[in-house]
Amino acid sequence: MATRILYIAELVGKAGVFTLRKLLPALVAERRIDHVVVCGDGATGGSGLGRQHAGYLRKLGAGTVTTGDGAFIKKDIVEIFPNSPWLLRPANYPEGEAPGKGWRLVRVGPALLGVVVLQGQSGFSRTHLDNPLRTFDRVLEQLRAEAAPASPLVLVDFHASTTAEKRTLLAHVDGRVSALIGSHGRVQTADATVTPAGTAFLTDAGRTGSRDSVGGLDPETRLGEYLSGVPAWAKDAGGSLELQACVVEIEDSGRARSIETLRLPCAEVLRD
Question: pLDDT tens-digit profile of 229-238?
Fold first, then answer.
């Protein structure tokens, strides 16, 4: 018997939320999904996750909602983290100081699934978090202790900017987790693989929202920003909608059996 986990790539703006709403139910049924993990780090206006959107993603079928460097950008979400175990911020925020948790243990059929969120250190000027490798070691001990005597399946969402940092974490966790899925790049990579040690890996799952965009955001605003050098708050784009994701199949032993990337167009049009 195997557990099938669907990881939905980062939602960007209302286009991402709309696409998820239209495509998720059929996808879960067709792929016989046991648990859905949704990266919601850009769901509200393309940057961060607001309280209403967080609850809405849960209603749409997200079993776990992950965030990253945008975890606390929307201030209305801060107060719900402590009482929402399905909502995760990066585990390498200061323990006991930042609200919420960076990992959870959830029963999925007969199995126990641990979901962990880590944030990289390279390329983030606004946040300064602990070493993700050392944080992972600490969290893995906690997961195993809480799951004992069972051994949990473990999926890690690594919200990081650079390929090098993602590959480094893979070298550190290889064979100790079922899957390591990269986020934050908003471009799906073509390197999905299962290592000989049994860890499914994908450098970046991509994004869910507008395909004809710059990271899901309005191209004209982004172009003007690059040409002028003046920062601009870009609005999210709404054309050519696509859901990007991956499906990981995990054996009861915790070894990944397979990983498959998905790019599913949404035929319906987002109305303003």
Answer: 887 776 776 7
